[in-house]
Amino acid sequence: MNNSKNLIDTEQRLGAHNYKPLDVVLTRGEGVYVWDTDGKRYLDCLSAYSAVNQGHCHPKILAAMVEQAGKLTLTSRAFRNDQLAYLYEELAALTGSHKILPMNSGAEAVETAIKAVRKWGYEVKGVPDGKAEIIVCADNFHGRTLSIISFSTDPDARTGFGPYTPGFRTVPFGDADAFAAAINENTVAALIEPIQGEAGVIIPPTGYFKRVRELCTENKVTLILDEIQTGLGRTGKLLAEEHEGIEADVTLIGKALSGGFYPVSAVLSNSEVLGVLKPGQHGSTFGGNPLACAVARAALKVLTEEGMIENGEKMGDYFLEGLRSIRSNIVKDVRGRGLMMAVELVPEAGGARQFCYTLKDHGLLAKDTHENTIRLAPPLVITKSQVDWAVEQIEKTLA
Ligand SMILES: Cc1ncc(COP(=O)(O)O)c(C=O)c1O
């Protein structure tokens, strides 16, 4: 069984159909490119939902992974390992965090933050037991666990999975007045994406986050920013909060924290919030393991030392300019920040997915989202000529 049709048939037959991938079977990746089993090359404009910001199979992350894999992979947190302290130190220096809790997937980081702020609410803020509320935004995407989908407003993500976890209050994204009105004495936190990625790269109005930050401070509400997708250079800054001139109390990162090699996520916070977790109250067998730490350390190092964030900012501006220059009567909107971009098509265009298939035929991989939007998020190592080539393919496809 080696041709792509057989592989696809087997996946369809034996796998749960919880995804509907484009029918391209990839076998190799390097930098911004991936190759399918027939040897065809594609420019990856999804970057595994922003997990491979550093480009596919970055040689320095690979070397760190191989070296650590040959030494020690997993100790569990029952014992200490000689990589975790370095990861803490390097992450703290980079982000200014005082306390860090390592996990694996993004959803686990979100769950961890929810647990921590609830406990903080009871023990520090004085919220009556069982009454803690967290404000979330409509059209959010924070992962797939039961508590997280309990406050999703996407029927596909939520329907049929009840009973749901209570304690969440939903407000429209970008509406500071609605946010203010949702705060009460039991509000312990707000959980927000700086830019809503899965919703189609939705950028909030200028000033929204400044006001949210003020309201959180005034009302002793912990501001949690989910930077699992926007963080680590994706928007042209280390963290997307920098565009807003604010600082979150709790920041969630994941995805590119490992450059796509391994699931690594982290909750970054001040001492007060993560300080409420005591031994035995939270954990994960794999969280903070030496292999994950070594990979994450290398992933952060190349991100900063190789100028990827600055390149992402420059190439993002250039890419957006290119996209905005495309003349097509089916384009409704082009938006983005850094290399987190979207082209929204008019509903009459018949859906974004068919265009993703045409782009694939032209050698560019992108992902449709919410029917009419094509998301574009290439690795941060993309060059000017590669952007030119990508814009050409997109122009050809939308013409
Ligand atoms: C903003 C945001 N939060 C959380 C997650 C969940 O991360 P994971 O799929 O690693 O659980 C995602 C994944 O797309 C995301 O975009």
UniProtKB/TrEMBL annotation:
Look at the named UniProt entry and state the broad enzyme category this protein falls under: transferase
What are the EC numbers? 2.6.1.13
Name what cofactor the protein needs. pyridoxal 5'-phosphate
Query: CDD domains, alphabetically?
Result: OAT_like (cd00610)
Q: What does UniProt give as the signal peptide span? A: none
In its UniProt entry, the species of origin is given as: Rhizobium mesoamericanum STM3625
Q: Which GO terms describe its molecular function?
A: identical protein binding; ornithine aminotransferase activity; pyridoxal phosphate binding
Its annotated pathway reads: Amino-acid biosynthesis; L-proline biosynthesis; L-glutamate 5-semialdehyde from L-ornithine: step 1/1
Which named protein is this? ornithine aminotransferase
Q: Which UniProt keywords apply?
A: Aminotransferase, Pyridoxal phosphate, Transferase
Q: Which domain of life is it from?
A: Bacteria
Q: Which family does it belong to?
A: Belongs to the class-III pyridoxal-phosphate-dependent aminotransferase family.
Matching Pfam families, A to Z? Aminotran_3 (PF00202)
Record-linked PANTHER family: AMINOTRANSFERASE CLASS III, ORNITHINE AMINOTRANSFERASE, MITOCHONDRIAL
The alphabetized list of GO BP terms reads: L-proline biosynthetic process
